[in-house]
Structures are given as C-alpha cells and as structure tokens.
Amino acid sequence: MNMKVNNEDGYMIVVVLMILSILTVIATAGTNNSITEQRSATNEQIHELSFYAADTGKAYVIEHVELYHDDNITVGGSIAFPDKDNPSLPFSMGSLESFKGDVEYIGSGATPRGSGFEVGKFSSHRYRIRATGYGPRNSKSEIETGFYRVGF
Rounded to whole angstroms, how far apart are CA atoms 148 and 21? Predict the structure, then answer.
C-alpha cells in the first residue's frame, strides 16, 4: 500500500511570510537609521549657522575701530556691539541668524615677538572679544577670541 500524502500546500505560505517578515524588519531598521542620520545632519547644520553668526560678530569688531580704540582703554571695561546703548539687541544677518557681543580691554604690554615693532617704543593693547551667535530653532553658539593693536 503506497499512499502518497500531498499536504505541502501551506508550507510555501509560511516560508514566504517568514521572508516577508525579515525584509520588513530590515526595511524598518534602515528607515529609522536614515531618520536619525537626517536629524543629526540637520542639528549639525543649525549649530554651524549659529557658530558662523558668532564668527561674523568677530569680523564686525574688526570693521568698527571705535570698539577697540581710545574709547575702550580702561582695564576691565567693555563695549557691547552691535549697539552699545542696548547690549541685549542682536544684529540680524537675515531671517535666521544674528549676533551680539562685547569687546573688553585686558591691558597693555610689550609688543609680541615677531610683530615687527620695536620693543619698548610701542605697546601692545590687548582685547578680548566675546560673541554670541543665534541661529534657527533657538540655537546658540558662543566664541571668545583675543587680539591686540599696537600703539604708543
């Protein structure tokens, strides 16, 4: 008696469902990874915009001599920019970025080595710039840098 049982019809459905489940898990993981990468890149771009806004504040000081000339030579004294009368008001660079900061006089001393100025004849007046840049989504970046000007 040779009975042939032909009951393999449901087996292929189970295999196809397992393969489909595995592919769904892989696709979901890939989508989540892409979303995370996109958010990370967006956050980095937003931080860069606020950093560049603060860096523009530094360039603003270089363009405005009154911030680091005879009006600002009291040790510990500082002048706010862009508006010394209203230090909380930032300078808008467009719809998304702005900056504000202050220039502080630190003191004077000998000219730095290699500056090309005769030691003892000239003085180096040292300043500190603190600039805060603002970008989209309430991002904020702060930088601090120093510079000097040579004078008598």
Answer: 66
Q: If phi over 0 gives left and psi between -120 and 50 gives alpha, with beta otherwise, what is residue 80? A: beta
Buried b (16+ CB within 10 A) or exposed e, 119-151: eeebbbbbbebbbbbbbeeebebebeeeebeee
Q: Residues in the chain with pLDDT < 70? A: 1-9, 152
Assign 152 to helix, strand or coil.
Answer: coil
Note whether residue 1 is domain-resident. Answer: no
64-102 pLDDT tens trace: 888 888 778 888 888 999 988 888 888 888 778 999 999
Tally the domains of the chain: 1
